[in-house]
Amino acid sequence: MNSLIDKYNIPGPRYTSYPTVPYWDENSFTPELWKQSVIRTFKESNAEEGISIYIHLPFCEALCTFCACHKRITKQHSVEIPYLESVLKEWQLYLKLFNEKPKLKELHLGGGTPTFFSPKNLKTLLEGIFETVEIAEHQEFSFEGHPNNTTKEHLQTLYDLGFRRVSFGVQDYDPKVQKAINRIQSFEKVREVTEWAKEIGYRGISHDLVFGLPHQTWEAMESTIRKTMELKPDRLAFYSYAHVPWVKGVGQRGFDENDLPSGEEKRRLYEDGKKLLEELGYIEVGMDHFSLEHDDLYQSLIQKKLHRNFMGYTSSKTQLMVGLGMSAISDSWYAFAQNIKTVEEYQKMVEEEEIPVVKGHILNDEDLTVRRHILNLMCQLETTFDIHNSFPELENAFEMLKEMENDELVEINGHHIQITEKGRAFTRNVAMVFDLRMMRNKPETRIFSMTI
C-alpha cells in the first residue's frame, strides 16, 4: 500500500461538483441564465423530491489556522441580526422564481460557526424560512456546532425546529496540535455537548477528525480516536488536512509547513486511523466518512441512495440546492452558482434586490454525462458507461484505468467500473480519469489539495 500511496498521492479535486470550481466556464454564465436554470429544475423536481437549502453563516470569534472556509472573524455579535435579515431577503428573491410552494427536504447550517449566532436569532431565521415552505415528510435538517460555544439551548432550540443531525468539529485532542491550529477545546467540553445532544434526542451525531495537521503524531491520533470512541458518535468524518495556503483569505499560515507530517507520517495517520476505526465498529461510507450500521449514511449506501454535493455526503438527494448567504454555492443540477464572497457586498446586492451570484457554470450535455459517472464513483464506487452516450476520450480513459486495474484498485468488466476495497482510498484518482475539463486544460499551478 505504501508504494501505491506514493504513486497516486497527487493534487486532485474532492468532487463535491463536476465541473470543479476552478474549471467553471464563467464567461458563458450570467445571473439570468442561473435564474432560468433554477426555474426549470424547480418545476421538474419540487413536487416529487423537494429542494435543499444550504445557509452559510460566516462569523467566527477566532481564526482556526487549518480552516479553508470563507469566514469573517469578529467578536461583535451585533452583526447577527443584519446578516440574518439579508439571508431572509435573499430567500424571498428565490421565492419569486417559484410557481408553487417549495417542499423543503434538506437544510444545512454551515460556516463559519453557525453556533456563533444566538439560539433566538437562529430560530427567527429558520421560522422565517419555514413559514414559506412545506416541510417534507422525511426531512434532513443538520448543523455544524463548535463544541466551545454550542449551548444546550442551541441544541434544544434547533431540535424543536426539526433538526436531528449535528456535526461537532473535533480535529484532534492533542494540546500541541490544538495550539498550532488555534482550536483549543477539551475532551470534557466535547463530551458535554455530545451527551446533551444524545439526551435531547439527536440521532445523527457526527464528529469531524482531521489527519495531517501540524505536529500530529500517530500516538496523538490514536488517542484522539479512542477518546472519540468513548462518546460513540453515530458517524465520523476522517478528513485529510487540505493545505491550500495559496487560496486567498483562508488563513493557513499560522504554522510553518515544516511542522506538517511528512508523506510517510501522514500515510500512517491515514492507514492506521482507518484500520482502528473499522476495528472499533465503524464502516467506511463513500470517501472520508465512517458510520455505525444503524446510521442513515450507511443505510443510504446499502440502498444505493447516497448522494454527494457541496454539503458533502448526504443520505437524500434533491436536484435543486439553494445556497443562501455570503459565498454560498447553489446547484440546480444543470448549473452551479456562487454568491459574492464578502459580507458587505453580499448585503448590498440583496438590498438592491439582486440574487447575489457572481460566478457559476452552465453544464452542457457532456458535463451532465461526466457528472453522473463521477457521482456514481464517489457514492456507489461503481458506474457503467453507455457507449452510445459517451465522449471522445472514453477509450483513452479506460486505457488509463488499466494501470489502476493492474494495481487492483478497480475491476473493469466491459464498460463497467468497480472500485475495489483496496481502491477506496484512491476514489478521487479514479474519478480524475474522467475529468474532461481538467484533462483538456491541465493546471499550470497547483490548485487542489493532495488526494490522500
Short account of what is shown:
It comes from Chryseobacterium mucoviscidosis. By secondary structure, the protein is of the alpha/beta class. It is built from 15 helices and 19 strands.
Here the CATH topology of the largest domain equals pyruvate-formate lyase- activating enzyme
Beta-strand residue fraction: 15-25%
Helix content: 25-40%
What is the CATH top level name of the largest domain?
Alpha Beta
Structural class: alpha/beta
Report the mean per-residue pLDDT as an integer.
90
Question: How large is the radius of gyration?
Answer: 21 Å
Count of domains: 2
Strand ordering within the main sheet = 9-10-8-7-6-5-4-1-13
Shape: globular
Total of helices: 15
Terminal-residue CA separation: 12 Å
| CATH architectural designation of the largest domain | Alpha-Beta Horseshoe
Multimerization status: single chain
CATH superfamily label of the largest domain: tm_1862 like domain
Stretches where pLDDT is under 50 for at least 5 consecutive residues are none
Q: Report the sheet with the most strands, covering strand number, pairing sense and barrel closure.
A: 9 strands, mixed
Describe the structure.
The protein is of the alpha/beta class. It has helices spanning 2-8, 31-49, 80-95, 119-130, 152-160, 175-181, 187-200, 218-231, 263-279, 296-302, 343-351, 365-380, 394-406, 427-432, 436-440, and strands at residues 51-57, 59-60, 72-73, 103-111, 134-145, 165-171, 204-211, 235-240, 283-285, 289-291, 307-309, 312-314, 321-324, 329-331, 335-339, 357-362, 382-384, 410-413, 416-419. The protein has 2 domains: 25-362, pyruvate-formate lyase- activating enzyme (Alpha-Beta Horseshoe), CATH 3.80.30; 365-440, Arc Repressor Mutant, subunit A, CATH 1.10.10.920. It is built from 15 helices and 19 strands. The strands form 5 sheets. Strands 9-10-8-7-6-5-4-1-13 form a 9-stranded mixed sheet, with helices on both faces. Strands 14-15-16 form a 3-stranded antiparallel sheet, with helices on one face. The radius of gyration is 21 Å and the shape is globular. 44% of the residues are buried. The model has no long low-confidence stretch (mean pLDDT 90).
